[in-house]
Write a structure and sequence with these properties.
Blueprint: E1 6-8, E2 11-13, E3 15-21, H1 34-49, E4 52-59, E5 62-69, H2 75-93, H3 96-100, E6 110-114, H4 116-127
Antiparallel strand pairs: 1-2, 3-5, 3-6, 4-5
Length: about 130
C-alpha cells in the first residue's frame, strides 16, 4: 500500500491540513528563541495526539503548518490543542509576552484541506516562506 495512506480498524485515510495562525495583533513576537521553542511545543503536541507534522515554518508574525491527522480529529480540536498548549507554555517561559499581548494568539486561523495532488505544492510553499 502507498505510504501516504494510513489505516485504522475502520478505514483507510489521508487527512492533511495546511493551517496558518497569527499572534494577537499580528505582533512580530515569534523571534529570539520563541520561534524554536514554539516548534518544539507544536511537535510534542502533535506527537502526543497521534498527528504528524510534515512541514512547519514559524515567521515573526505567523505560523504555517502542514499536518496529517486522523479522521476522528476535527480541525477545530487540532487547532485548539496546538494554540492552547503553545500559548500556555510560551507565556509561562517568556514572561515578557504577557505584557505585550493580552492573549498569545488571535481567535481565528486559516485552514485548507490538502489532497495528494496539491501536497507537493503546499510543502514547497511553506518551505519557501523563509526566503520572502
Amino acid at each position: 500500500m502507498d505510504n501516504r495512506w494510513k489505516t485504522n480498524p475502520g478505514c483507510v485515510y489521508n487527512v492533511s491540513y495546511h493551517i496558518i495562525w497569527c499572534p494577537k495583533y499580528r505582533r512580530k513576537v515569534l523571534t529570539d528563541g520563541i520561534d524554536e521553542r514554539l516548534k518544539e511545543i507544536l511537535t510534542e503536541t502533535a506527537t502526543e495526539n497521534g498527528w504528524e507534522i510534515g512541514k512547519m515554518e514559524v515567521m515573526p508574525d505567523h505560523v504555517h503548518l502542514f499536518i496529517k491527522a486522523t479522521p476522528s480529529d476535527s480541525i477545530a480540536h487540532i487547532v485548539s490543542q496546538l494554540k492552547g498548549k503553545s500559548s500556555f507554555i510560551l507565556r509561562q517561559e517568556f514572561s515578557h509576552l504577557k505584557s505585550r499581548l493580552p492573549t498569545m494568539w488571535t481567535r481565528s486561523y486559516y485552514v485548507e484541506t490538502i489532497g495528494h495532488i496539491s501536497e507537493t505544492t503546499i510543502l514547497k510553499y511553506i518551505e519557501d516562506q523563509k526566503a520572502k
